[in-house]
Amino acid sequence: MSSPHITLPSSTTYSPTTTLPTPLRSSLNSALLSSGGITRIQASLIEHLKASGWMEAVRERCVELLRNGECVSFGEMMGTIVAEVRAGVEQGGEGRVDGSEELNEDTTSSGNTNGKATTDGVTRRGGRQQQPGLAIPAPVIKAGLSIVRKEIDDVVDIADE
Fold first, then answer.
1. Distance between CA 119 and CA 103 in Å, rounded?
2. Alpha carbons 65 and 80: distance in angstroms, whole number
3. Across the strands, what pairs with 106?
4. Which helix (H) or strand (E) covers residue 76, if one does?
5. Which one, of 87, 68, 91, lies nearest residue 79 by Cα?
6. Alpha-carbon distance 127 to 50, whole Å?
């Protein structure tokens, strides 16, 4: 059985910030589901996230949130994790809180320095390592965009006008 294809006129253009019309988006989703593209995209992203250590960092952060009592429910923990991932992306981070090579010293409310970040993006406070931010690493994003583009190219045909 052949995969469903979507045919677009060659004059159709969309920028990265354009939202696709609902019927086209639905057709694209259906075509990707039917062709197995969604499954391949998910598998690729999981593979790259695991290889980068991101999934382990998220797991460790979840454990930390629960052990410290910062979160008491699954919903609260997920909300915190999603907010931290988004904050890392918005700040241009790649495993660092602010995306910079070196973090600023952490200062306590009394003004005492409590630790200093190293160039590996890990802050050490009181002898304990604090995990870097949860921004998705740029190589994972790049790989994700690549697989999505490939899967879309497999189900979309551009027709000559």
1. 8
2. 9
3. 115
4. helix 74-90
5. 87
6. 27
The tokens for 26 are 């639905």
Per-residue model confidence (pLDDT) at position 93: 55
Residue 43 makes CB contacts below 8 A (sequence gap 6+) with none
- Decide if 49 contacts 142 (C-beta within 8 A): no
pLDDT of residue 160: 72
Dihedral of CA atoms 82, 87, 88, 93 in degrees, nearest 10, equals 160
pLDDT by residue, tens only, the chain of 161 residues:
455 788 877 777 777 777 888 888 899 999 999 999 999 999 999 999 999 999 999 999 999 999 999 999 999 999 999 999 988 876 665 543 333 333 333 333 334 333 433 444 444 334 434 445 799 999 999 999 999 999 999 999 877 76
Question: How many CA atoms, within 13 angstroms, populate the side-chain half-sphere of residue 140?
Answer: 21
Tokens 């057709």: give the residue. Answer: 27
Contact 111, 147 (CB under 8 A): no
Residue 37, classified by CB atoms within 10 Å of its CB into exposed (0-12), middle (13-18) or buried (19+), is: buried
The DSSP bridge partners found for residue 158 are 8
Q: What is the pLDDT of residue 96?
A: 37
The first and second tokens of residue 52, run together, are: 């980068």
